[in-house]
Specification:
Layout (H helix, E strand, L loop, with lengths): L1 H13 L7 H30 L1 H5 L3 E6 L5 H10 L2 E14 L6 E10 L10 E3 L4 H6 L6 E4 L1 H7 L6 E4 L2 E11 L13 E5 L16 E7 L6 H11 L6 E4 L5 H39 L1 H9 L4 H33 L1 H7 L10 H25 L5 H11 L6 H22 L2 H32 L7 H10 L5 H37 L3 E6 L4 H9 L4 E17 L2 E2 H5 L9 E6 L8 E4 L11 E5 H7 L6 E6 L2 E11 L12 E4 H4 L5 E8 L4 H11 L4 E4 H40 L1 H13 L4 H38 L8 H21 L2 H5 L2 H8 L1
Parallel strand pairs: 3-8, 5-7, 14-19, 16-18
Antiparallel strand pairs: 1-9, 1-10, 2-3, 2-6, 2-9, 4-7, 5-8, 6-7, 11-20, 11-21, 12-13, 12-14, 12-17, 12-20, 15-18, 16-19, 17-18
């Protein structure tokens, strides 16, 4: 019966409109819209990758081999399963333009193709000629096409000549569109494309050199992709085949989109948390204005349950309106701006209404609305009817009844569990939730401390009326201080943490890494070149250090006889091929932390020393057996030691090192890192490249620049998410200022009656806003620095130092924001006539 009565009361209350709930609706709408919008863009990209999966892959399915071509038997089976087959190799090399000391060199990702390429999609060139014609070249030279970025960097144009290894090629055109470019993932150099047959004799595709061979297939219509994948892996499990199909044409891109989307949704949840504070404050302010109505209902016999249900239903209906508005915005904005978004994406996207992210955002919105409205609603349950006529909210106890506390805890657990379920990353989600909770605790304590200090400072401000009034207002019974510090402080904390993380990551990459990283990686050094290569570098006074090691790559296929993916899941060591080396003696600067290194003259069964940290992540123990497929041959080795491997300095590091007898007979090349005087790096490169045209040099600084460009895009997306959170905090701040306008009007009227000037009252209002803004910014520095330190230290495992310009910018931003909001809502109180205000108060 009480629910029916409550519904009637709620319906009548809603007839009065949404006055007082505009900030409530704005906060909830923005929070839901941010999550729905990010999810919609993510779903659009996923739909695009799925729809264009075959084009991105270059076929319906692909079989990939590491550092070798398919055998005749393997190729025959692939041809028997397909209607068309194309062979593509992919590797890094150096493009050389010119001769001698004036030659220009650039790292390139070479793709060599056959006449069947591309099976799907269109290769667009400039000038607009067919790819076969471009690769035919001239009568004297084979043809090639090149990415415009590389051509511009080297200063060449169609019609010019360049070298790969020691062979000349004619540049026929530059690449406008490469249909399967996204499927290859991140590369260190722009593309150069030639025919595979034109690379014969260059030494670039010799056994043991670093290249991948991909066989793209068009399959008969109706082919069961799962069945053919299972047959391929079963038939060639021991030969190192890797299979993928059009359902996941660009796995690296899809994985990045998933992780980035999940992270941005968590940033969106931060915005929803900020909005939740505004929601809670709006509900509390609304109930305070409804004191006389609630008191009247209690006097007429309405039960506590009826009153709670009345306002629960009313606020619930408004919450649904806010959630629906958020879903509409989150669904439509990506569609409206799809041309701009698509133009900035390197992958296809299919924009439209995607139900899944909208459902996810709706669940977040409902849980957030329940979580942040339950507490202020519950406080009315603790207030007696007689107290309601005085000051309902001030008279209520600090904590509601235990059942509401329990319900709040359950809702919080459900919200975190839902975030873990949707994000798929429990660690990052728990860190985010813990960070938000920690920031709220710090901000709540800070608000209490600020009010306490303000109250204690009133007496010390005698003779300074403007300061005294400001301190008295901050320390008074109203909760303006708490609303400002919590809402704006949390938004600034999120922005501060992201600023610290971004700054420290860039510092680690752009400043710290070049100080410890080598100048170059040289790869594809043949065995018979090593002596001459070392002789040249050892004789060069500009070279301070050289590290060299044999280099093979292999795929971890089994752990203790069980498929590796079943043991290690999606761990990066298992995903794709990994660098493998061999050694007899324990390498210099190598620390064995468990087990023992094999004897110098060891010739028994293969043994392997595994990187300690990665082994712990996978769950490996001494005595476990690892099966690695290298050049089509399975090698099963026993783990006899774990060693520390530092991948953070861009130096030489291998997850797996085997005893020499296990690998040295296999075809392979060497890899080398060279540390040289920065001013002499170009000369060192020229000397090595002139003596050994087949060797590929990878500049660490160029690699750092490529990573920095990628970071710019990631940081930009995250900053936009943080800006949305901060904007929500600004709305909450405006709501708090608007809610306190009536109280400031009465305060100004009293002060004017007592003889205070408008100027002095305005100074008081300005001081109040400035002090609260500075306090919110200062607390945000503490919370943001702590959050940035935790993420940098424990998740990213990088060094941390406070980025002070960013930190001080946060304080300034907080001060200006609250100052502007406070001044905006100060004009009407200052303009009000005291007589009218005081009569209305009576």
């Amino acid at each position: 019966m009480s629910l029916k009565t409550a519904a009637k009361f709620a319906r009548r209350e809603l007839r009065g409109g949404i006055k007082g709930f505009r900030i409530f609706l704005a906060c909830l709408t923005l929070g839901v819209a941010a999550i729905a919008g990010v999810g919609s863009v993510k779903s659009a990209i996923q739909a695009g990758l799925s729809d264009q999966g075959a084009v991105l892959l270059g076929g319906d399915a692909e079989a990939q081999f590491t550092y070798r071509f398919a055998t005749d038997e393997e190729r025959a089976w692939l041809e028997s399963q397909s209607t068309a087959l194309s062979e593509v190799t992919d590797f890094r090399s150096m493009v050389v333009v010119g001769e001698g000391d004036t030659a220009e060199r650039g790292l390139t990702q070479v793709k060599s193709v056959d006449d069947a390429y591309p099976l799907l999609g269109d290769m667009v060139l400039s000038p607009d000629i067919p790819l076969p014609q471009a690769l035919n070249g001239t009568d004297a030279l084979p043809g090639a096409v090149m990415a415009p970025l590389l051509a511009d960097r080297l200063g060449i144009a169609p019609g010019d000549t360049f070298k790969l290894a020691d062979k000349d090629f004619h540049l026929s055109a530059v690449i406008e569109t490469e249909p399967d470019d996204t499927g290859g993932g991140f590369s260190l150099g722009p593309r150069t494309m030639v025919r595979t047959t034109d690379l014969i004799g260059t030494g670039l595709l010799e056994p043991g050199t670093l290249f991948e061979t991909e066989y793209r297939m068009l399959l008969p219509e109706g082919t069961d992709l799962d069945a053919i994948k299972a047959e391929a892996e079963d038939r060639y499990r021991d030969t190192g085949i890797r299979w993928r199909d059009s359902r996941n044409g660009a796995p690296g891109t899809a994985r990045f989109v998933d992780r980035m989307g999940a992270f941005l949704v968590l940033v969106g949840l931060s915005g929803l948390a900020v909005g939740g504070i505004g929601v809670s404050a709006a509900v509390r302010a609304y109930l305070s204005r409804k004191t006389s109505v609630i008191a009247t209902l209690r006097t007429l016999g309405a039960s506590r349950a009826t009153i709670f249900q009345t306002y629960f239903l009313q606020i619930g209906a408004l919450s649904l309106v806010g959630i629906v508005l958020g879903l509409i915005l989150g669904a439509l904005i990506p569609v409206v701006f799809s041309p701009l978004i698509t133009a900035s994406l390197p992958v296809p996207a299919m924009f439209g209404i995607h139900p899944a992210p909208l459902f996810e955002a709706a669940i977040y919105g409902v849980l957030a609305a329940l979580l942040f409205t339950l507490w202020p609603l519950a406080r009315t349950d603790e207030v007696r009817a007689a107290t309601l006529f005085r000051d309902a909210m001030a008279g209520a106890s600090l904590l509601p009844a235990p059942r509401y506390i329990l319900a709040t805890a359950v809702l919080l657990a459900i919200l975190v569990g839902t975030a873990i379920l949707f994000s798929g990353d429990a660690l990052i989600t728990l860190w985010t939730a813990g960070g938000l909770l920690g920031a709220l605790i710090i901000l709540g304590l800070a608000a209490m401390l600020i009010r306490f200090v303000a109250r204690k400072s009133v007496k010390a401000m005698r003779g300074r009326p403007a300061w005294r009034w400001a301190m008295g207002s901050i320390g008074g019974p109203r909760e303006e201080a708490a609303s400002v510090v919590l809402s704006l402080g949390l938004g600034l904390s999120v922005l501060a943490a992201i600023g610290q993380i971004d700054g420290n990551l860039r510092s680690a990459i752009n400043r710290d890494l070049p100080d410890v990283a080598p100048s170059y990686f040289f790869v594809d050094i043949q065995k018979d070149q090593m002596d001459d290569y070392l002789a040249i570098l050892n004789a060069d006074s500009a070279v301070s250090r050289i590290e060299s090691a044999p280099m093979l790559r292999g795929v971890v296929t089994e752990i203790n006889g069980i498929p590796a993916t079943e043991v290690a899941g999606d761990h990066w060591v298992i995903r794709g091929d990994r660098g493998v080396t061999y050694a007899n003696a324990l390498p210099d600067n190598t620390d064995v932390v468990a087990g023992e290194w094999w004897p110098l003259d060891y010739t028994g069964e293969p043994q392997v020393s595994f990187a300690a940290e990665e082994a712990a992540e996978i769950g490996l123990e001494l005595g476990d057996k690892i099966t690695v497929n290298i050049l089509g041959r399975d090698i099963t080795a026993t783990i006899t030691s774990f060693r520390e491997v530092d991948f953070s300095n861009a130096g030489m590091g291998f997850v797996m090192t085997l005893n020499a007898n296990a690998l040295q007979a296999a075809p392979h090349t060497f890899i080398s890192t060279v540390y040289a005087d920065p001013a002499e790096e170009a000369r060192v490169l020229r000397e090595v490249a002139s003596a050994f045209p087949n060797i590929t040099a990878i500049s660490v600084r160029d690699a750092i620049d490529r990573v920095s460009v990628l970071l710019d895009g990631v940081a930009g997306a995250v900053r936009w998410g943080a800006a949305a959170t901060l904007f929500t905090g600004f709305l909450v701040l405006i709501g708090a200022a608007a809610a306190g306008e009536q109280a400031r009007t009465y305060e100004a009227a009293i002060l004017k009656t007592l003889g205070a000037s408008r100027k002095r009252i305005l100074i008081s209002f300005t001081l109040r806003s400035a002090l609260l803004g500075a306090a919110a910014g200062a607390v945000a520095i503490v919370a943001g620095v702590l959050g940035g330190w935790a993420v940098s230290t424990f998740l990213m495992e990088t060094s941390f130092a406070v980025v002070w310009p960013s930190a001080f910018g946060i304080v300034l931003g907080g001060l200006l924001t609250t100052l502007l909001a406070g001044l905006f809502f100060a004009w009407r109180p200052l303009a009000a006539r005291p007589a009218q205000v005081l009569r209305a108060r009576e």
